[in-house]
Amino acid sequence: MDGAREVRAHRGSELHTKGWQQEAALRMLQNNLDPEVAEHPDELVVYGGTGKAARDWASFDAIVRELQALEDDETLLVQSGRPVGVMRTSPWAPRVLIANSNLVGDWATWPEFRRLEAEGLTMYGQMTAGSWIYIGTQGILQGTFETFAAVARKLGRESLAGTITLTAGLGGMGGAQPLAVTMNDGVAICIDVDPSRIARRIEHRYLDVEATDVEDALARAVEARDAGRPLSIGLRANAADVVPELLAMGAPIDVVTDQTSAHDPLAYLPSGIAFERWDAERRRDPEGFTERARASMARHVEAMVGFQAAGAEVFDYGNSIRAEALLGGFDDAFAFPGFVPAYIRPLFCEGKGPFRWAALSGDPEDIRRTDEAILELFPDDAHLARWIRMAQERVQFQGLPARICWLGAGERHRAGLRFNEMVADGTLSAPIVIGRDHLDSGSVASPYRETEAMKDGSDAIADWPLLNALVNTASGASWVSIHHGGGVGIGRSIHAGQVTVADGSPLAAEKLERVLSNDPAMGVIRHVDAGYDEAIAAADERGIPIPMRR
Ligand code: NAD
Asked: What sequence ranges are listed for the domain Urocanase C-terminal (predicted)?
């Protein structure tokens, strides 16, 4: 792609901008495109199919230039990956406001989006790609770890020991699956068509071994399961072929899911097209390719439903594969649930979600110190402590050192304030940037994923993420974003992100306290409004006012 070059975030305590908020935005934009972090950095693609950090290289250069010049009372406006304005605001205002991939309802379709994208008028921002807070596969690792722990509980087990999980997709997000399964003591067979994804996950120690073929994968899985040994096995194959094949073989699979990029039919390789021809074929005939991809997804999901009928625990892992399979002609595609209603919603009711932070110094020691701070702040949370210890042992940093853990309302601001103190007193060598995924409790409307099967039927109400972005803007976040189409694809979601910088200043402390209290509180009130008792209890316990309940 024109202008492509290798990008890495600045490190250390020296500023390249006029303040740490601008610097944090600059470093996190650069970090999203670090070759260790991004899946296809040459094309500015960070993860999740075609999720981009900037629209094109000229826009990237212009964003960098504007961030370098931006004053502490100015705000840069980014429209789908391109900088379009600089406004005089105030020191409390975000330094950057971002709107990515948004389209008016009737126009919110992939063909219309692609037409506009081809004209250079928009880009696909996914969730944290276009909002500059992607931290590599670790970002999804804890959520995936939590999900598989919940699956084990659902199966009446303490862990996944003695079970085999079958899944596909070893991309930026899906690549967390093998490690999340082995962290839960299970065995995983993970299919991907792209050999480079398998190699990358092995290199980063997310995946243990690669099998030579289906029989080899199954034999190794059964042997490890019987020995009670955690093992993850990569298999280069097309899931649309191999999942039905394993079902037909009567393979003893206990858990089935999928994280191919099914949300975008051009990012799912149909059966019968060689991996090497993928790019050429989807360019040559996008509509014909879409039809073939959907037909393959229909076969893939039909086999998943077959495993469910055979007694396996089966769930959709947030990639819209059921909806695509339905379009591909398989009417029973929604026979299995999405992972949020099945396992995650009780956490969302408490405002719990993927809290994350990165050390702008680039020094792993800063993350080690923040890990210890989290353990000290929440000494009674054994599950959290287990995660932090395992992450320290098993997670290899990609780009700037970073950490993720799920914290809820009433917890996140305590972590933020502690990190700010640690920057102020020199315990940390540079500021910490604190953000989260858009997949959070109060920041997304996505009827096939985060808001599937809401108790009051409000799945598609998108006022909540918009209020979330507004409240974070009003509370002092460093940058705020509103996106459409992340996770599950164009037309299917609206979501918001926030990132706030702990630079050690008293102003940062005030902002952190407000943002990190209000942001997860949005999750609680959204679930109170939908009638969840767990959320009502969380609001009462944490003193979150609910006007209609006073
Ligand atoms: P990615 O594009 O980086 O990776 C997708 C992988 O699927 C690629 O490696 C590709 O080779 C592989 N693939 C495509 N078609 C295949 C086929 N027929 N058989 C086998 N492999 C195939 O995407 P990602 O970032 O890993 O995200 C994967 C999906 O998960 C996306 O739809 C994304 O929106 C969704 N997602 C889910 C969550 C969640 O929390 N559950 C979070 C973020 C993203």
From this structure: 346-540
